[in-house]
Amino acid sequence: MLKNLFNLFFPKVCLSCTNMLTDNEMYICTSCRHDLPITNFHFEDPDQVKKVFYGRIKLENATSLLRFQKKGMVQQLMHNLKYKGHQEVGNFLGSWLGKELSGIAEYEDIDVVIPVPLHKKKLKKRKYNQVSVFAKEIAKSLNIVCYENVLIKINNSASQVKKNRLARWNSKDEIFSVQNLNLINNKHILLVDDIITTGATIEACAYQLLKAKNVKISVASMAIA
Question: Dihedral through CA 178, CA 48, CA 131, CA 116, nearest 10?
Fold first, then answer.
């Protein structure tokens, strides 16, 4: 009775279309769940995301769960995750992708998951790193550790998207740094982010992680533009 009363005043709504959820639905309604633009890259086209990074960084594997389009349902989900406090979106997507990757041979030897970090000022303002939420669920599904104390963001700079390739390369050491390299020496790392657009952020992070000894890097993201 109390649950019904609570739902009457604070109804659960789909984080994609905002329609009310039924008792059997969580976070996203059944209709939106079926309409989400799933890539299936890790099942059907494992080289698709790697092509973004050809000639830039060497990746073992790379995938993205969803396709991102402006004003689409994935953008709405990302907005709710990043700016509306709905960390459950990251939990949902991380658990989903993690369970799929756990059944794929190419991802069986991954040792650690590392999320793209937020700068401490932005983390203080937002209260959480949306990528870390996603990363922890993937790590849980793969039964491995998630390290948030290796890769750090040292410059609260604007996005690299509008920079040219040379400017991005020159800024690698200005934006991210690494610490506790002993934790990742000789490891296969799964580097995760929310959205891959130009790939500049992943490239900058990978550049830092490659300072460790004998590491291999794979990449996974919630969405790709």
Answer: 10
CA distance 168 to 155: 14
Are 117 and 71 members of one domain? yes
**Number of separate domains in the chain:** 2
Instruction: State which amino acid sits at residue 147.
Output: Y
Strand ranges in 77-209 using DSSP code E only, listed in sequence order: 112-115, 145-146, 151-153, 176-178, 188-196
Angle at CA of residue 172, ends 183 and 60, nearest 5°: 55
For helices 73-83 and 130-142, what crossing angle results, to 10°?
100
Same domain, 31 and 41: no
Q: What tens digit of pLDDT does each residue of 111-161 get?
A: 999 999 999 998 888 899 999 999 999 999 999 999 999 999 998 765 444
Q: In the numeric block, which tokens belong to residue 133?
A: 């939420």
Angstrom distances, CA of residue 153 to CA of 6, 120, 148, 156, 207: 41, 8, 11, 7, 13
- Residue 37: phi, psi to the nearest 5? -80, 80
pLDDT at 172: 52
- For residues 72 and 46, membership in a common domain is answered with yes
Domain that holds residue 17: 1-35
Give the global pTM.
0.87
